[in-house]
């Protein structure tokens, strides 16, 4: 029963993405949603994560804000006559420890212009991040920890 509501949501998303609201297409979306939920069931087994829609919305709003700011910074860097780029890779110490949290953080970092998640250490304590402007890696680490990582912890714990 717990899977029915998320599967229905996935079915509606499937119908919206495919552009067809036919009954067969909605049923296909529902079945694909059930399959997806079944595949990731072990990631959520035993974890009683509270559903916090407002905190998830705050995380999405932070991402949109960071996306706009980063896109502007990258555009200014690229458009300047002297591209004073200082690219580099730094290790970001992870506070998040569950697979879903690490994956979400890595994806949010990668989707933000100017940064790219490269790898997670074998002990899952560090996320390696490539930054287009790595002139101040301490400030970048602080921005990630105070921004995305904090919002992920608030939304998923």
Automatic annotation (TrEMBL):
Entries under InterPro entries matching the protein: Cation_antiport_E
Domain of life: Bacteria
Transmembrane regions listed in the UniProt entry: 25-44, 56-79
Subcellular location: Cell membrane
Entry keywords, A to Z: Cell membrane, Membrane, Transmembrane, Transmembrane helix
Primary residence: membrane
Entries under PANTHER family matching the protein: NA(+)/H(+) ANTIPORTER SUBUNIT E1, NA(+)_H(+) ANTIPORTER SUBUNIT E1
NCBIfam families recorded: PRK08965.1-3
Protein name: Na+/H+ antiporter subunit E
Source organism: Mycoplana rhizolycopersici
Lineage start: Bacteria, Pseudomonadati, Pseudomonadota, Alphaproteobacteria, Hyphomicrobiales
